[in-house]
């Protein structure tokens, strides 16, 4: 069963992918959603809209949703979320059982929402985790107000930090220098994602993996390439799991961002599942306050296929075996960490120590599901 530990239970069958669409108040989430819902491939999208305040209006502003839009009860999604969101998703699962051709869910959060409790609900609630899988977190940042929002609002920084895709809106209203400064700041908070400007070009908010269980090699290739961007920010290449101990801490010039940082680690030789899983579980159990999100594609000892893992604070989704390594991508593990007040060296040293001490084992999903031996 998902939601307990990294070694617990097999994944659900054919779960509906869920995209979390965040961004601060007025950033342009609804505008983007309206545009996306008209795009090919977005048919069968159920939209959950959450609002802050007495009267919800956004669901009226989201066009072309018909019966598929569900307005979550007024109230801050991150505060009152667990029951409401789980119930709303349960309703969607019921509709699918009744034969409605729903293919994905988009949750548009209130601008004030902290995305983490929402992610936790998706993964920790057993019934929810059976029917749904997190596809990705998409965060919209307003090019005009983004900097000021990040200065003032810690939740906006968290929205950027945990994002799988960063989309900058209102670039048409911002001057180029300001836009550049904003992009640099976003890269500082989350160097594992390349911010994209929202312009007339087609944009996708789906298949962001690894949580999406990418079935297409192209998705996996793009994810690995983008996550590797984290190396620009003082990362280094790990020759092997217990290799180089050298490291640099991310130096963030923005004081309001400085508690949260994201980086990617890369390992060229196959990792021992037991050592890595034990370390990650221990980390999540003891420092769930500091571990906002972990995601990765792994090359594991004794396993020919890539394995996707992802966790939010102390909650882990069951590891997923992906179809194959794309031909043109070097086989290597990429692990992305989004941390608060936890030095990168703690992660690097912990992984190195646990992997060095691990007895070589063969990873299989069944073995991971049974908790190891
Ligand atoms: N010029 C310009 N205006 C935009 C752009 N994106 C959104 N807007 C405008 O910004 C305003 C807010 O956009 P919404 O899509 O309602 O923003 P939101 O994030 O859903 O807002 P809340 O639900 O209040 O958090 C609207 O007036 C949009 O027309 C953009 O790229 N350029």
UniProtKB/TrEMBL annotation:
The keyword Nucleotide-binding applies. Residues 232-255 have a biased composition (Basic and acidic residues). Residues 231-255 are annotated as: Disordered. It catalyses: GTP + H2O = GDP + phosphate + H(+). Residues 260-355 form the CobW C-terminal domain. CDD domains: CobW-like. Signal peptide: none annotated. Pfam families: cobW, CobW_C. Keywords: Chaperone, Hydrolase, Nucleotide-binding. InterPro entries: CobW-likC_sf, CobW-like_C, CobW/HypB/UreG_nucleotide-bd, P-loop_NTPase, Zinc-reg_GTPase_activator. Zinc chaperone that directly transfers zinc cofactor to target proteins, thereby activating them. Zinc is transferred from the CXCC motif in the GTPase domain to the zinc binding site in target proteins in a process requiring GTP hydrolysis. Belongs to the SIMIBI class G3E GTPase family. ZNG1 subfamily. This is GTP-binding protein. It comes from Teichococcus vastitatis.
